[in-house]
Design brief:
By secondary structure, this protein is mainly α. The chain is built from two helices and two strands. Keywords: Metal-binding, Zinc, Zinc-finger.
């Protein structure tokens, strides 16, 4: 079945507005489309909210891990300044 967006955009691949970015349900031509971040289409408000919650959880996790890395780096710098031997988790191989 040809995409109803192909006539507008001329592409062979399915257009991003044809199916839900989360559940992959087909979004009909006359259906409401719930957008998120400008390039993700969803079939319902619930699917969009689930994606938003997932993205926020990933962002919180990333922030916590970044904070943890900064803390470890700061502690290593203090130990190095105090004359202690410091080992880092980085290995360089040529």
């Amino acid at each position: 079945m040809a995409s109803h967006y192909n006539s507008f955009f001329g592409g062979e691949e399915p257009h991003f507005l044809e199916s839900c970015s989360l559940c992959r349900k087909h979004i009909g031509l006359n259906s409401d489309i719930f957008m998120y971040r400008g390039d993700k289409a969803f079939c319902s408000k619930e699917c969009r909210e689930e994606q938003i919650e997932s993205d926020e959880a990933k962002e919180r996790s990333w922030r916590l891990s970044a904070r943890s890395l900064r803390k470890k780096s700061s502690e290593a710098a203090k130990d190095s300044a105090a004359g202690k031997t410091v080992r880092t988790g980085t290995l360089v191989v040529a």
